[in-house]
Amino acid sequence: MGADHDHGQDHDHSHGHPHGSAPVDxxxxxxxxxPGDQLDPNTAQTPGMNRATAxxxxxxxxxxxxxxxxxxxxxxxxxxxxxxxxxxxxxVVRGRARMRWGEHLEYVAxxxxxxxxxxxxxxxxxxxxxxPDETLECVLVRSGQDPVVVNLDIExxxxxxxxxxxxxxxxx
Length: 172
Fold this sequence. Notes:
The structure is a single chain. The chain is mainly beta. The chain is 5% helix and 30% strand. The chain has a 5-stranded antiparallel beta sheet with strand order 1-2-9-4-7. It has a 4-stranded mixed beta sheet with strand order 8-5-6-11, with no helix packed on it. Strands 3-10 form a two-stranded antiparallel sheet. 20% of the residues are buried.
């Protein structure tokens, strides 16, 4: 394949000139690096966890996503909540996450370092730090800018059903 091959994708060759307009100042409107020690804790919170914003419109110019961190103290659990019509992806950096979800938090699954957790829109859920002595540290990405957190007052079942993930694409 030569350098001229387009890999079957249509794309604009104007490089920095979206829609034929003037050149973009990529220095100020390009990549942003937000240092991990400069995250913003002024975001919607749920009891039992600490969220901090890394990427949003105000901090980095993002228009369609929000990203940040969440820390849950040892043996702590959040209140039940959902995030409206937003999709959420949680990446476990350190610790052991136990997720409960459902109308009565009747389902449960665990995730460890390197695992990804997907939370669809409107799913009532609760994050639990399954470790008695290690902080659960995660990276969180959401599909929108609004800091939607709807805290719920629901009665949880005593023994939730364990749910294992099955790859829907590569089932055998």
